[in-house]
Fold this sequence. Notes:
This protein is an all-alpha fold. It has 2 domains: 3-38, no CATH class; 45-114. Helix content is 68%, strand content 0%. The longest helix has 15 residues, at 93-107. Mean pLDDT is 88; it is low at 111-115.
Amino acid sequence: MTNSEVIEALKHRGADKQLVVSDAHPSEHRVYQALIAQEPNPKTREQESAIFKTLKQEFPTLSKQEIVQILNARPSTLLEINVLVGDLEKRLGVQGGQKIIDFISENYKNKEQQS
């Protein structure tokens, strides 16, 4: 699951409400708060699905798990993308890795911009 999907599921459980009026467990509240702190304006399921489909079309050798990791981690350097995608240079080349980084930065705010 992507972070946005987890946020959506936790909202459905009531983790976005006060603990005393919610059905969510305290641990669900903590996870929700941590994810919101990381991602103040999460994408909707439809937005993230469109981003996922675009990545899969542009980079068909990426597995679903790799794309989910990319969406959650939002890499901003070749080192980060290299950790997420096995055999990056063989499969996509350095240019492919940079293209993913550029695509992510266009569709999501950089970590520094969210602060």
